User: Which sequence fits this backbone?
């Protein structure tokens, strides 16, 4: 029997995902209310929405519990990492299927995640956590003694490769640490960690968990080399072209990782690297794929990932659902250089490439572009489908090659 009630979707003001969930809820005829992460000064209820401050998880959970008094809830679903802990706590308090708050917190914090993986017997590179104001000398000493080179410095809680930097020696490590510390200070973020660099090809696994059992939904290849010093994501293509046994190793390692972290239910997005020693977890997140990338996935006869997740959340059986067999892919359009985006040219020519389904430029004209590692957004997304993953990858590259990004250099203001 499926629980009745409303789905509460936890979103942020900048999310790309809400629309797809709202459309899926309509299709399923499931009532859905959107909650938005807003600071207290803007926090107020308005028709059809609920304002929550994700920075104050306890208050946010209480607001949800109060809301549930008048609007019985079937499930609380986070659209990204920022709502994962609140969803876990609120679902738990309401007796709904949930991840343990400790597991949700671990999946959000790369340092705690590594600790859980290590404690659960999952192979991990050496790692060490640091406070924001630890000195470069101290970090270097720890890295030289316990981690070695190459290594990767990364923030505990940011996303989209923001602040993630590879260092090959003490000099580049010092530069990376200073750069990351400046970024984290400027945005008031928590500390960071350094871990051993994992060589190998990278893949991303989209999956759902049901009572701790992992059901793979799609495995994406990331065909562009991600070797640093920054790790800008570009192309994702599914199905994977890896040999079946490698794919199985990836899925098994992701399942082992989810178990070690303690995730039990709902969406999982895992990133892994594969080398001659096997599959290695980069991350296992208790959320679904970010940005607009879920558009690459269709299940059964045209069902979106969002609909699949809503179905699972209301207790419907999603076990038999398969990804449609057609190959598909997305390119997260990288920012070529800093400056002011004036306009994007060549859209019609790019759109005309066979196999291209859509090109979404998500950065508005005249907007300031900040590349990684400080930046936090891509220029947009190119979507393609085709007979094979190779054809899809080729179409994405061809379309991207036809786009021109007119970017003006930023003239620094001289203040006298
Ligand atoms: N130990 C590592 N070895 C090699 N590459 C790494 C390592 N850690 C991170 N990377 C690279 O940096 C990228 C970003 O790192 P990570 O996935 O940990 O953070 P994130 O992408 O910012 O988080 P999220 O995936 O939640 O948005 C990875 O996809 C991978 O390419
Ligand atoms: Mg990642």
Assistant:
């Amino acid at each position: 029997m499926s629980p009745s009630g409303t789905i509460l979707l936890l979103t942020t003001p900048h999310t790309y995902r809400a629309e797809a969930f709202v459309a899926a809820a309509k299709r399923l005829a499931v009532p859905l209310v959107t909650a938005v992460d807003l600071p207290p000064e803007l926090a107020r209820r308005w028709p059809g929405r609920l304002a929550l401050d994700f920075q104050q998880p306890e208050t946010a959970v209480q607001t949800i519990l109060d809301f549930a008094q008048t609007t019985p809830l079937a499930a609380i679903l986070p659209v990204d990492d920022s709502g994962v802990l609140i969803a876990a706590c609120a679902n738990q308090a309401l007796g709904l299927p949930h991840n343990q708050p400790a597991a949700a917190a671990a999946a959000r914090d790369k340092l705690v995640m590594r600790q859980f993986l290590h404690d659960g017997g999952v192979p991990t590179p050496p790692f060490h956590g640091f406070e924001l104001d630890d000195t470069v000398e101290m970090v270097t000493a720890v890295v030289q003694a316990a981690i070695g080179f190459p290594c990767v410095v990364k923030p505990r809680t940011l996303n989209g490769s923001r602040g993630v930097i590879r260092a090959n020696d003490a000099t580049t490590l010092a530069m990376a640490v200073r750069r990351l510390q400046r970024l984290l200070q400027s945005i008031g973020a928590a500390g960071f960690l350094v871990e051993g660099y994992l060589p190998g090809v990278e893949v991303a696994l989209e999956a759902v968990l049901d009572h701790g059992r992992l059901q793979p939904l799609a495995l994406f290849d990331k065909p562009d080399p991600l070797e640093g010093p920054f790790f800008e994501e570009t192309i994702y293509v599914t199905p994977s072209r890896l040999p079946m046994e490698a794919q199985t190793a990836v899925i098994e390692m992701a399942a082992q990782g989810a178990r070690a972290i303690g995730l039990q239910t709902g969406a999982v997005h895992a990133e892994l690297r594969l080398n001659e020693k096997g599959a290695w977890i980069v991350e296992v997140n208790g959320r679904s794929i970010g940005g607009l990338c879920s558009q690459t996935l269709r299940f059964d006869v045209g069902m979106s990932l969002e609909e699949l997740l809503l179905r699972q959340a209301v207790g419907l059986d999603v076990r038999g659902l398969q990804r449609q067999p057609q190959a598909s892919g997305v390119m997260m359009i990288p920012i070529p250089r800093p400056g002011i985006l004036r306009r994007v040219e060549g859209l019609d020519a790019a759109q005309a490439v066979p196999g291209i389904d859509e090109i979404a430029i998500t950065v508005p004209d005249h907007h300031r572009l900040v590349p990684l590692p400080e930046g936090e957004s891509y220029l947009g997304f190119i979507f393609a489908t085709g007979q094979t993953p190779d054809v899809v990858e080729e179409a994405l590259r061809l379309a991207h090659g036809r786009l021109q990004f007119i970017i003006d250099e930023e003239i620094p203001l001289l203040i006298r």
